[in-house]
Amino acid sequence: MNPLKTLLAGRLPKHYRPRPHRNMSPGVAPALAATAAALGAMALYNHLKARQAERDHPPGGRFVEVDGVRLHYVERGSGQPVVMLHGNGSMARDFELSGLVDLAAGRYRVIAFDRPGYGYSERPRDRIWTPSAQARLLAKAFRQLGVERPVVVGHSWGTLVTMALATEHPTVIRGVVLLAGYYFPSLRRDVPLGSGPAIPILGDILRYTIAPIIGRMLAPGLIRKVFAPSPVPDSFQAFPVELSLRPSQLRASAEETAMMVPAAASLARRYKELAIPAVVLCGTGDRIVDFHGQSERLAQVLAQGSIEPIAPGGHMIHHLVPEQVMAAIDKAAG
Question: Are 66 and 140 in contact (CB under 8 A)?
Fold first, then answer.
């Protein structure tokens, strides 16, 4: 008989043999349970480490709320304002440890911000925190704090926010000092490697479990790299690494790593429009950003820009030559 007709008639063909039901392999369920338990244990451990880090390093400054975002900032001194914006993975504390905050506070009103998601500043998930979005938020913060036409000092990723302020809000600031910045799109190996915690759902799992543990393992080598070829100064031993490994800050860092190249591509078109003084400082031995392809190239584009190479300085030049950074601030202010 035709098998199709047999099935339509409600009968099974003689040669049909039902396949036995296959249960889950005996070892799969215990493995899944063990994995879940391990992830839970890592999440609990990282949560406790984050809370301990916050107890050990409480906020050292003040807070201002702008557009529903609570920003933390450190303020010192009086006089003409100078605003400092840190790089990816860092916080305002970095400028304090370099000595630059106290040095500048001798003759300026210094405000060092924790950018959104870093230190003790919030980073709501209801918007994409591009350099332009951060610049808009900071321009409003300036008004609330009575900060009129500051010189803005940006380091590393903070230079993208500084350039967004300079090109999109040119009447708000007086001049810029750009330290070891990334300005033009380029191929970077750290983008795919460092963007994982920004992936929805999977990234959330990573930043609460595995990512902080990997971060603790990699931190000593990364710190040596950002200072190389110079040694890591003793003052940097006080940097709160555990604060930077909290899940909230790992998300901010991963998001900025992922958007770094397109952000630079978007801003680069407007650099030639910059009509305020800009002083570019960079280390010729920088192992994070290419001196020739970034800072040297930018100086050739800026109408009122000057460049001061630091040989053979690395990425953290505000720690290496704070007095020279101060001279650049004076130049931009003048």
Answer: yes
pTM metric for this prediction: 0.91
Checking if the pLDDT of 6 tops 70, the result is no
> 155: which strand partners?
179
Q: How far apart are CA 145 and CA 149, in angstroms?
A: 12
Cis peptide before 170 (omega within 30 of 0): no
Cα separation, 331 vs 185, in Å, equals 28
**Residue 248 backbone dihedrals phi, psi, to 5 degrees:** -65, -40
SS3 readout for 94-149: HHHHHCHHHHHCCCCEEEEECCCCCCCCCCCCCCCCCHHHHHHHHHHHHHHHCCCC
322 CB-near residues (< 8 Å, 6+ apart) = 98, 99, 100, 103
Cβ-count burial 51-75 (b if 16+ within 10 Å, e if not): eebeeebeeebeebebeebebbbbb
Pairing between β-strand 81-85 and β-strand 151-155 as defined by DSSP bridges: parallel
Q: Which residues contact 118 (CB under 8 A, 6 or more apart)?
A: 86, 89, 90, 91, 244, 249, 252, 253
Q: Which CATH architecture does the domain made up of 60-187+259-333 adopt?
A: 3-Layer(aba) Sandwich (3.40)
Q: Quick one: CA torsion of 209, 213, 218, 219, rounded to 10 degrees?
A: 110
The 10s digit of each residue's pLDDT in 157-198 is 999 999 999 999 999 999 999 999 999 999 998 899 899 999
Helix (H) or strand (E) segment spanning residue 155: strand 151-155
- Can you state the angle between helices 210-227 and 28-56, rounded to 10 degrees? 50
Q: Is 178 helix (H, G, I), strand (E, B) or coil?
A: strand
Short-list 312, 119, 120, CA closest to 227: 312
Q: How many CB atoms lie within 10 A of CB 108?
A: 23
CB distance 213 to 42 below 8 Å: yes
User: Residue 193 has which token pair?
Assistant: 């490697």
CB neighbours of residue 299 within 10 Å = 18
